[in-house]
Amino acid sequence: MDNKGNTDEIFNRFAxxxxxxxxxxxxxxxxxxxxxxxxxxxxxxxxxxxxxxAVLAILLGIFITYNPQPEKSDSTQLAKISPKAKEAEVYFxxxxxxxxxxxxxxxxxxxxxxxxxxxxxxxQLEKDYDKLTLELIENGENKKIIHAMITxxxxxxxxxxxxxxxxxxxxxxKEKYNENNNI
Length: 183
Description:
Blueprint: H1 2-13, H2 27-66, H3 77-81, H4 83-105, H5 112-139, H6 143-182
């Protein structure tokens, strides 16, 4: 009974403020067209991601086949242990940095929570990657560890892309809300 009173109170408080107008003619078609265009854009992003993963796989295959000698520079132990892992790290790191910069750029009052959560999760993925790197250095070149490292890097990219999609959705919702309130 108490809940019904709360519901009635809410409806009474918002009386006359409900949007009861019918959408304009062709609204459904315009809405479906927008959804379809977003699907096409998302498919294009995935195609780019898969293409870059395929290029990386080919590069790793070439490195495995020809087994180049480690570089003589003392820049990192990882490069000494596994040039393949270092090559993958450099390739993915540039993509991750670009995507992370995009996420940080979108930091606003509406997206602050999602951006900060994303940064915390990225920090955890970085710690996991560091553990894998140490394991590789301790145990030597191991295909399973290298695969786990590459998977970690790919996961970070996919995660950042998903965060950017969520931010875009938040912005679209805010834009629609503002459009509806300005009418």
